[in-house]
Amino acid sequence: MAVYKVTVATGDMVEAGTNNSISITLVGSYGESRQTTVSFLFLPGKERSLSVHCGQDLGPIVLIRLHKWRLFLEDAWFCKDVRVTAPNGTLYRFPCYQWLEGVTTVEVREGSGKKLVDDKLQILKEHRHRELAARQEAYRWQ
User: Fold this and answer.
1) What's this model's pTM, rounded to 2 decimal places?
2) Residue 75, annotated ligand binder?
């Protein structure tokens, strides 16, 4: 069994926290973890740490999925970043720096800069394509 240490940080601006449920899925080059609840309460400027238990080694962690679920009242949450430490001690950083509003799932790539030709895994190619399509829709690119 592989155990990954995960730390999720909330931004320190006013009302960056949330009372909604936040969970995470780790995606590695060999597979992905099950969805694991991080917390039901995030305060601004605070971090939450947890362990994610997996039946097998996920390999290098290439992206994460943050899931936000409404419990009672809807409120936005500002995710600063997520850090994942693999069982072998490798630290992966996922800079998020965005607001999550409503019931949503956000995929965040690992923070090291990569070019399109560096994406060897199909899941990373698909993520890059979805991200480009979303930006084209948001900004009305042709």
Assistant:
1) 0.81
2) yes
